[in-house]
Fold these 3 entries.
Entry 1:
Amino acid sequence: MKQTLIFATNNQNKVTEIRSVIGDLFEIITLKEAGIDIDIPEPHDTLEANATEKSQTIHRLTTKNCFSEDTGLEVAALKGEPGVKSARYAGDGRDFQQNIDKLLTNLQGHTNRKAQFRTVVSLILDNKEYLFEGICEGQITEDQKGNQGFGYDPVFIPDGATKCFAEMSVDEKNKYSHRKKAVAKLIKFLSEQTA
Ligand code: IMP
């Protein structure tokens, strides 16, 4: 029987990306589908602690197997910022465009445009927690391009690509993506548990 996991997110883009990687192997239930309507807090100063907070919150509510993920964009010239504050970089409105504007403003005059997305997945399986990490290195562009994806996708070109994430389909983004790498580790782990 297919294993069912609740995915502790309200971000539909993340659900689409993760479902495209997981395929038919596992059944992913969104918070909405599980009838849970909460804004899960992200109060901590590491991606790991926030991912844990999200999965534990949903596990407390449902007692079911579940996972969460927390992602940050770490920019070298900004000493790792916005990092764990990526969603609220320009304020509590969590506005993608304002976040991009602030990032490009803060990078004005910097020739070092190196950055990485880092995703941490927290899985709670049979009451135990497991963490998985995925990293995608790349560059922040001078101008934004494309209208696919979400967040900082219009200003991030992954290493090995010639266009930014927002110019790629979900499948193209998955060739490079931090989230795909973390979820691939999650799938491998789950497959080993059920083998
Ligand atoms: P969260 O706290 O994990 O939901 O994500 C923090 C913020 O990072 C999001 O609001 C987005 O702005 C950004 N982000 C996360 N993942 C991606 C991605 O795959 N592409 C672009 N931006 C992302």
Note: The beta strands are 3-7, 26-30, 66-75, 82-83, 114-125, 128-140, 156-158.
Entry 2:
Amino acid sequence: MDSNFKWLLFAILISLTFSGFVLHHGVLAESVNPDEAKQLRDEVRGMFYHAFDGYMNNAFPLDELRPLSCQGEDTLGGYALTLIDSLDTLALLGDRERFISSVEWIGKNLQFNINKTVSVFETTIRVLGGLLSAHLIASDYATGMRIPSYNNELLVLAENLARRMLPAFDTPTGIPFGSVNLMYGVDKHESKITSTAGGGTLSLEFGVLSRLTNDPVFEQVAKNAVRGLWARRSNLDLVGAHINVFTGEWTQKDAGIGTSIDSFYEYLLKAYILFGDEEYLYIFQEAYRSAMQYLHKDPWYVEVNMDSAAIVWPVFNSLQAFWPGLQVLAGDVDPAIRTHTAFFSVWKRYGFTPEGFNLATLSVQYGQKSYPLRPELIESTYWLYKATRDPRYLDAGRDFVASLQYGAKCPCGYCHITDVELHKQEDHMESFFLAETVKYLWLLFDLAVDSDNLVDNGPYKYIFSTEGHLLPITPQISLAREHCSYFGGYCPSNSTKLEQEVLGEDSSNDDHSNDYPYHESFPVTGLIKGLCPGLTHAQKYGFSYVLPEKTDREDVNQPKPVVTSSSIVLISDQTVEKRPQEEEGFTSQSEPIMTISGGSSNDQTGQELTLLESETDDQRSYSS
Ligand code: DMJ
């Protein structure tokens, strides 16, 4: 069969699925109104406590709950994983009492000096991230959840844990081993193969830790890992799924936005927003453009060979569903809406999203029938509701609640669904159900009610880690002064002044040897933190803006850009002193302050549609 014809067939099948969704929607119940939104928010709160109390009463201090048999199991390191993952949800729900008692218990009882080999990725996103976000809440009056007796116990634990993971980064590529023993380091028999998500999703947690401890090592190793991966991208700017951390060879060359890669993309953009580090932005821009060019088959995404862009997997996998949420953060809302609609049509069809749904056969992918309580589609629903306030996202939220309540609720919590066609329950509840799934559902409805919560109406802007943990954009974490001056990044070195000089600080002491050495961390791309007043935005970023809005003034250096559908939105920092740009007509406070054209395209030129039907779950590994 001619490849163009195959592609046409594929496109027709996809549009049939899509139109099926639209028809289905015609018979939906009335849209969620404010009263119902409030009821749903309260119901979600009840869901949280059903699962949290179920865990505390039946499983704690083991890692996770077996919600059917009401028992516990150690699944990661044997350190009360679900409690750590739940801490900031407790704070978000305003449960002072349980937040305090949980933080105190962890501070007194947890220790990582244990002979356990753990996943670097899972330990970072669940445990390190959980500890750091709870620390930042418990130690800060502004959150309304400060614990008077708290004395940085969680930060000390976080640092201790991260140091135990550092040996994993000792590889020729800088990409860490997938697992590390918390007592003895990396075992000599440890596998050298790791996933792209596993090696490239550490920058938020490790970066925050560096900025809280003033020890740059954590931020540096995480960034080196990203560089190690990105340096091995293909000529198409795509990354594969698995790589050998010693040789740097890709052992699995399927490029995609889901399984094994997903949060690599997520952390590029979020690390930029949180830390103001433009190197991440540059990588994100290139990676995103390429993903939209080769992986996006509007509204779906496929997996392709990273070198040839030939389609190898025309499959929706449930981890892809975070992508529309990321696109909202990137300011690329239109494709996000279309993709969310398509992904949600899969949920509507089965009541849950299976791990894999084959876009060519329009059926559940063989061996990928389960729904392990994943949050991704709900997360994107929250972001799209936040961006559009379209009530259809509340309606989707109501469907999520109904499915979980009728299909997944079990005696002591919520059960995994082993088969979305049979709705069979399995005796397991991943900790991310409380860290993410319930959190995003609650936030969705709270947004429709009064948004009086830490995230939407709190003292800071928050970035969600990939595990849903709240990381505030505070001056200490985002190095707000660098944020102030990062508009000046990417300057020729002779026109650069370090921020201390620019901001009028005492620069008489030229000994910068004890400074936090961020300037060191840019040699690869030549990015420099500093201010070079003579450059336009386009020169600074290497991008052209679409139609900068005309102002009365002759200020060509800081044009106020026009939002395009393909853009990066920078979120302003509310906490810093007034910055020069505000005086020059920038939107301030909670409004996005500027956009950068990002470029997206949809290449549908005749690509090979190769179905690898024999590959099953057993042959592919998943990032959590
Ligand atoms: C979580 O651990 C994180 O969201 C991760 O990025 C992907 N897998 C699970 C949720 O599905």
Note: The mean pLDDT is 79.
Entry 3:
Amino acid sequence: MADEKVDTQVIRAPTGTHDVLWPQSSRWEALLAAFAVRARRAGFGLVLTPMFEDARLFRRGIGDESDVVTKEMYEFVDRGGRALALRPEGTASVVRAFVQHHPTTPWKAWYATPAFRYERPQAGRFRQHHQLGVEVLGTDDPDLDVEVIALAAGFYADLGLRRIDLAVNSMGCTGDRPRYVAALRDFLAGRATELCSEHRDRFSANPLRVLDCKRPECRAVTEDAPRLVDFLDEACAAHLARVRGGLDALGIAYRMEPRLVRGLDYYTRTTFEFAGLALESAQNAVGGGGRYDGLSEAIGGPPASGIGFGIGVERLLLACDAEGCFAVDPPAADVFVVDLTGGEEARDLVDGLRRAGLTALRAYDGRSIGSQLKQADRSGARYAVIIGAKELETGVVTVRPLRDEGAQETMPRAEIVARLTRLSGAG
Ligand code: HAM
């Protein structure tokens, strides 16, 4: 026999990923359904795109120098020698699909997707997280910025979240950003010694990154830094004014945050971020987005304005836990069939009940009556349908209410599906 070691180590989910098991996943189902309703109401349709793309899409779309691309992207070469990457976010793929299929504009798409980033895992930060998002392509109408922000804000409210902070900024456009970056670079050069160790020597290539730095040294310096909103050209300033006016008109509370630059390089004009104030501040961004008027062209498409947001599902649920809202009970069964005659009756009856639209469960492996009734109780079903030898012989079943006081009844086997459908209101 070959002297080979057999690998018997228990295999676990990779670091920074997690399983969501039933019944906790009921909350995910409910979340997705709530988001789909909101998105549909605003004219968005579901879009599905591949989980991996040509790696150049993200490099060109998100930015060659961004942390997401240089430090966090999962890249691989497939068996055909193609350089691919797992999607680190949803926007670039949706814009790629827009460019590839040129749908009628404005094109409003929503999505629910896993996203992959090689980050240091910690509470609220994972290597695979999930995003609910929307993108609108084909117009730069500032009213759409308001619509998109209102959609996210309304969704948080639907879940019962109260402690949500909305920060808004404008990243300017290609015309005014270089002037600002130059001014910021000059400012930082004068205070370089006060910056954190990461940025002290390396602020010059991309001074905007310093605004995003959470370290106290950089925070203190950028407190006094020039503000992008003061450098906007006339058109960008008017755009921002219209967005702010819209938010005010719709009663959406927000604050201007001149240091909000976000980590992806495609943003232009409106940017925004929602923070869950009940969460630890380092990982409290429960959603963010903005306008990306140059992204389509950056990936080889026609000029096309776009705006959207991504909401992190895991963080959102953590925020709900912290605020004690959006508790979702797993859906209870309608009927639990207890068969003491060998299982054929249960097999046929659950099938009939399910065809009629009821949630019907049963036990397996010829369990005892005690064990089956215990399972029935645990399932949360409203009724137990009991079939013993006597019932089988006389063509009846016993129906026992499990959740209310009603009396146990015996009814003809032939009528049970129709009667239970009526009783449970599924018919
Ligand atoms: P983002 O801010 O990078 O934006 O991510 C959106 C949200 O995903 C964050 O606010 C956060 O809730 C969640 N998130 C991000 N990274 C992680 C992680 N490692 N672990 C857990 N949650 C995370 C985008 O991805 C843009 N595509 C949003 C967008 C859409 N902009 C325009 N359209």
Note: The longest strand covers residues 107-116.
